[in-house]
Design brief:
- With 69 residues, the chain is α+β, with helices and mostly antiparallel strands.
- The chain contains two helices and two strands.
- The chain has one domain.
C-alpha cells in the first residue's frame, strides 16, 4: 500500500521526550490502527529551550522534515 497520510508529532517546550510523541504511544498506536500501512508518522525532535534561537532551530528542523515528506 502507498502512504496516503502523514502525521508529524512535535513536542512542546521543555517536553523533549513527551510520551505522546513516542512511536509506541497510545496516540501512535491508535493512528496506526485506524490508518494502517497508509500512514507515516514522523516525530520532530528539537532543542525545546524557551529561546528565540532554539525555536528558530526547531522551525528549520520541521521545515526540512515537511519538505522531505
Amino acid at each position: 500500500m502507498d502512504i496516503t497520510h502523514v502525521v508529524t508529532l512535535v513536542h512542546g517546550t521543555w517536553a523533549r521526550n513527551a510520551p505522546w510523541t513516542q512511536p509506541d504511544s497510545a496516540l501512535a498506536r491508535h493512528l496506526l490502527d485506524h490508518f494502517g500501512k497508509t500512514l507515516k508518522i514522523n516525530r520532530i525532535d528539537w532543542p525545546a529551550h524557551n529561546t528565540h534561537s532554539s525555536r528558530e532551530q526547531g522551525a528549520e528542523i520541521l521545515r526540512k522534515k515537511l519538505w522531505e515528506t
